[in-house]
Amino acid sequence: MLLAKAYVRHQRDQMLKVALDVLDKYQNQQRFGLSSDLGGHQVHEVAKFAQALRDVPSQLGFPYEVKWPEVPECLKKHIMT
Fold this sequence. Notes:
By secondary structure, the protein is mainly α. The protein has helices at 2-31, 40-55. Helix 1 packs antiparallel against helix 2. The protein starts with a helix and ends in a 26-residue tail after the last helix.
């Protein structure tokens, strides 16, 4: 069970890092008046995805039955599923 938890958490953590990096980059671009590749809707989708990833360990059946959230289109080039 410990190995399964560690494996799933590692997968989750990798995806969460990508999502949080994208959100952090967007926030910095906004703060300094720089253009961004993302629109407001995309940022919202990434934020929802990050929260869904945070919620993965609280799913019933974790770590053996995990329902992964759908990766937003703007992250698919960064996250392999």
